[in-house]
Design goal:
Protein name: XRE family transcriptional regulator
CATH superfamily of the largest domain: Jelly Rolls
Domain HTH cro/C1-type: 16-70
Order of helices and strands: HHHHHEEEEEEEEEE
Strand content: 25-35%
Number of strands: 10
Number of helices: 5
Keywords: DNA-binding
Structural class: alpha+beta
CATH class of the largest domain: Mainly Beta
Number of domains: 2
Pfam families: Cupin_2 (PF07883), HTH_3 (PF01381)
Largest sheet: 6 strands, antiparallel
CATH architecture of the largest domain: Sandwich
Radius of gyration: 17 Å
């Protein structure tokens, strides 16, 4: 992989500090709201932590910002080619995500992810900001949203309010899919260019 393993950690460290300070939250208060330990948050803010999907989605939910505001996606200009092997993988209990692009159009923002649900694994989410869209490319995917469950096959699509509790489960073999997260532009956190100050 040509991207350094620490780059996601470094981007998250800088953006998390800015997002937390812009929201006026201490590390203690963010810890209380996200149910992530203070020591873990301090490690993440120093670039020493090991972020997981669960951690990033929990921070996105509590800070009410898109995932890309924490992971610092690149802007689009001209021809954009993103090679899968050059993107770092953000892993969770059952899912591996590669962030490919953020697309801004008018007052709508889309984040595009290559998503793989590992064989016979389940990924749970308590919910986060935005609307979630998933298109299955290969495999059988069970999607549960707020108590409702559907099974999808190749070519099938599901969309839902991402603030609701939801889960993805691979039925047997691994599932490949495209995940689109959709936000209103006013849900984005406009991160300052100035270095953040840390509150404890």
């Amino acid at each position: 992989m040509s991207v350094s393993e620490g780059s996601v950690r470094n981007m998250l460290a800088a953006n998390l500090k800015r997002a937390r300070n812009e929201r006026g939250l201490s590390i203690s208060e963010l810890s209380r709201r996200s149910k992530i330990g203070k020591a873990t948050l301090s490690q993440l803010e120093s670039g020493a932590g090991n972020p997981t999907i669960e951690t990033v989605f929990s921070l996105s939910r509590v800070l009410e910002v898109p995932i890309s505001d924490l992971l610092d996606a690149r802007p689009t200009s001209g021809l954009t080619v993103v090679r899968a092997e050059q993107q770092e993988v953000l892993s969770g209990e059952g899912v591996d995500l590669r962030q490919l692009q953020r697309i801004e159009s008018g007052d709508t923002v889309f984040e595009v992810f290559d998503q793989q649900v590992r064989a016979d694994c389940r990924q749970d989410s308590l919910g986060h900001v935005g609307t979630e869209h998933t298109i299955v490319q290969a495999g059988r995917l069970r999607v549960q949203v707020d108590g409702q469950e559907v099974e999808l096959g190749p070519g099938d699509y599901v969309g839902f309010d991402a603030s609701l509790p939801h889960s993805y489960t691979a039925s047997g073999a691994a599932v490949r899919s495209v995940l689109l997260l959709q936000y209103r532009a006013d849900q984005r956190l406009h991160l300052a260019d100035t270095p953040p100050t840390q509150q404890e």
